[in-house]
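Q: Is it fine to ask for two folds in a single conversation?
A: Yes, each is treated on its own. Send the first.
Q: Here.
A: Result:
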Amino acid sequence: MTTDRTCGSRAETTPVTAGSATAPGRPSRVLRALVLRWPTWLGLALVAVTFVDGAPSLKFPASLLVVMPVCYLAFGALRGELRRPGVLPVQAAALAAFAALALVSFTVDRTAGLYVVAGGWLLHAAWDFAHHRVGRVVPRAWSEWCGVVDLFGAVAILLTA
């Protein structure tokens, strides 16, 4: 506590520290968190634009079930992650599983196919989360963005099915 010389009373003072919301010239923690979550905002914007007028044809989201794991293989190859023991077989198995879900979605009626695709997208969101946690194979920003697209895209597919 310090003494306030203007009125003679004792007043508590709080120091201004770097990074606090009250430090002059420093962004608030909330603003910094928003800026750091740019992949999340970009993913939400993509989902909004994609699903604003309802579910697209089944072919589009089913195709993405195959494209998404191919992107993981491409990133893994470029980053040298596929050379680590066991990584390539796991990534290849994931590609096969997601491709199988895409193929199954075409063998049933449209509504059931959309449910299969939505389930695949939810599984891929979990796949993204796992990659984000370990920080391997793909950049963390990619797994964050893709996870948001997959999760909210799956919800949009379910709501419009």
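Q: Second one now.
A: Result:
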Amino acid sequence: MTIGFVPETSSAAAFLVTRTLEPTEWADMDVPLLASPREVVKDLYARHMPAQPTAVVAAYDPDGRIRASASFGYRTGVVDGWERRNALLSHLRRVIPHDLRLRNPVRTAVLMVSRDGVPGWTAEDGAWMWGLRDACTLHGLRCGSYVTLTRDGWNVIGENRAGRTPNASWSHAHPDPHRADPANAVAAPLRRASLR
């Protein structure tokens, strides 16, 4: 009889790796394109003034009008979508009821992540994309676009659409006096929720 820890199997390791999405996998999902990505980014930026690192998730009605949105700080360096999914789902539940009773989703969720680094896809973005897709499934929403916001500007991953403004450095030039201190991130999500 042997007592000790069971070594991690290759199948368990493979499961963890699958909780991320590559840009090609994202493109194969037929994510609905944003009609005017710059206007969406500007609107979300104006509502939440996201400093780094901040995620902004928003739900849109079929006519393209925003129904609800929320922003929250997040821990950097996470490459597993499980944690990202849980955070997104928690904030979606706070600002909008689920649509699981509908046969087909009618509202669409869009995620904008303000972060440091290059505007293109990274492993952390892959975790966010997996998390967004899974959170949408569990909340009865269509999975919409994933946008990164860096000092270089905004970039809609998988759509090859980008712009220079707004960018992640704006929040430093135009600080939000109501924004919570990053050390006190618990109260921030409730203050940053926007219902209309």
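Q: Anything structural to flag on that second result?
A: Two points. The helical segments are 10-17, 23-28, 37-48, 81-95, 123-139, 170-173, 188-191. The longest helix spans residues 123-139.
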